[in-house]
Write a structure and sequence with these properties.
The protein has 270 residues and is of the alpha+beta class. Helices cover 65% and strands 14% of the residues.
Amino acid sequence: MISPTDILKSPNNLEETFLWSLIFLLFILSFIFWKRSKALSKRIRTFEENQKKSDKEIYVLHQKKHQNTEIGKQQEKLRISEELHDGVVSKLYGIRMKLEFQQLQGTIPQIADEFIVQELQSLEKEIRSITHSLNNYQIISNTSLLQLINDLVKRVATYNHFKYDIKSDSYIDWESLKENVKINCYRIIQESIQNIMKHSKATFVSLEFVNYRGCLNILIKDNGIGFDINNQKKGIGLENIESRTKRMGGVCAINSNINLGTSIHIEVPL
């Protein structure tokens, strides 16, 4: 009888055992290689997908950056346009009106000469401030905004012969106002006074500043000829007032009636 030991020891059986072992080993190695190849392919696909996603995000960021740059340029152009119109053009108009008035009178007294010199000096400073503000948006100095407004209205009233009254709520902390609020409020009042001088024929102007429910309320009224707000097309002056108010996150209401004067109500969050 042949024992199992003898079968395993036979040459044929040993070759078969070795062959099957080799096949099994190759199968295991092939399976491992297949699994690793599959994992590597998955990692490559994931990397490519992430790369595409990253490329898309970078492209979107570039688009947004370009859009923001263009928006910034347009906003800066609008701001400079408003500064030139509300500040420089307004003062030039005031000088021209004074000269025309003196020409009609046939004389140019010394007070007119002083006015022209002062206004030209002020205009020179303002142009310099606007050019500086392209890099540093700082027009309102350390002088109190209320004092600047008082000086503005007093100067215009003196040479255009109207009376005025300015009232300010004691609860307004003028020094703590944000720089952009100071600048835009000053320009709004400057444009409003300019419009009154040009169009209203008013003899009295009132300005009132009130801190109400965390908002700075500005009320500008005149007793001029007024206009029909429903039929009157808004000029660039009124559009600038509304634009500046919106820029500060505020609201603006303009009311007027024929022969009943005009009022402008501005409300800006503090």
